[in-house]
Amino acid sequence: MRRNTGFLALLGIALIVPLFAMMLIPLADTSEPRYAEIARLMYESGDWITPWFAPGNPFWGKPPLSFWLQAISMHIFGPTEFAARLPSWIATLLTLGLLYRCCATLFNATTARLAVLIYATCALSFVSSGAVLTDPFLALGTTLCMTGWIMAANSSGLFWRYSFFIGLVVGLLAKGPLILVLSGGAIVLWMLFYPQARRTIRSLPWLKGIALTFVLSAPWYLAAEFKTPGFLNYFFLGEHFLRFVDPGWKGDLYGTAHKAPFGTIWYYWLQASFPWGLAGLFILMKGLLKTKQRTAMRQRLSDPRLGYFLAWSLFTPLFFTLSGNILWTYILPSLGGFSICLAYACPQSSAEEHSAGQKTNYPWRASGPAFLAMIAPTAVVVLIAMVSYTPNLIKTEKLLVQHTRTTNPSGIPLYYLDEVPFSARFYSFESAKPLKEQEVTSKMSSGQSFWLAVPKNRLESARADLKNPVFASKRHNLYLINNPKQHALTARAKQTNLNEPITQ
């Protein structure tokens, strides 16, 4: 009872802290506000087929599941950062439920509790649970596939017979055919090393399942291609082939490719699984150095159940080892398998050792998991406090945009020199517009009042008469041009911390 209470307390902290972070930390450029703005445009336009990167510019980079859910959330809570982030939290909660049920059925409740705690507090899964990303939904789809496959062979119930195919639908509508590779590749890898596991293929209703997958996922792909021709070619050839084989791929329509040396994914694995990955490596090394523990490890690896979760945890980083165009978020779908493997490896969760009354001398026997589980939540609480005290700590234009509104009752337009950051687009509801340097003079000579946000790295090349900004974000200085109140506002700005909004 005491152990169960401690687990619930730790898990509650791991789930509640992201909820506060969703409300208190602004959207920081570039990924979060980019996806949030796509969802906001869907919410505003009512177009549920084509996600729009900007008005008139379709977004072909991702399927719409995450944008659908974020737009629905905005209908309920309004177009806020909390509404945009909440679906990721719910997806993580569902993932935790699947992991617990699967692990408790195949092993025991103690192992399941630890596995859930590990997943919830790995650095990547913890951060992504409160972020506007597509990856939590791919992770949910992968978890549905992987738990569904093995549970269909070890448990009864209609849900588990079809959850593999439901997972395929979620993955196809969240990220694309990558779900077929990540889940199918892990299962094939498992069967290569455990031939007896091949009989699990017969546990799934293949004809009905494939039909269900096609009926639920194919209509959107066909509708998207019909509405914006060229989508299928870009999405399948570009996003799912060229992005993988061509580091620094030049065809990306919505950003820049992330070129990294081959094998970087394992460094990202250490980041994504922190701090539990280091603990897992410690247990592995200790097991390899002692003969008795090597024997126990071989015995455990003979269990096809453990082999299944090991294949799940290893296939994703193995697959991306030869890709240079990667991000650390690519690791997320594999963390469910890793969490169960590590929980199983921990002696305190081993049913066999409990029943035999064996004494273990692992240093994390009592307080170790609690300490590791608190690292990510503590770090985010510290971040919340730092951002509240120093808003310019992160790259966001939220306060700058708010400043133009609180001191701008007459609707003076806001311009950004060169380009508008994604966070400014989101918080201004697309009212902030770009202004080229050669256009600044003509705009000033027109006599129209306007706000101008100038990148701080462009101040030396900007106009000499742009002095004494009235506000500053992390990356931009804000100027009020051609306004009779400009001098008064500038004088007040000298006496006000530029990190804080100036109100009239």
Automatic annotation (TrEMBL):
Residues 30-235 form the ArnT-like N-terminal domain. Keywords: Cell membrane, Glycosyltransferase, Membrane, Transferase, Transmembrane, Transmembrane helix. InterPro entries: ArnT-like_N (IPR003342), LipidA_mod_glycosyltrf_83 (IPR050297). The chain crosses the membrane at residues 7-28, 89-107, 114-133, 164-193, 205-223, 266-285, 306-328, 370-389. Its main location: membrane. It comes from the Bacteria. It is a multi-pass membrane protein. This is ArnT-like N-terminal domain-containing protein. It is found in: Cell membrane. It holds the Pfam family PMT.
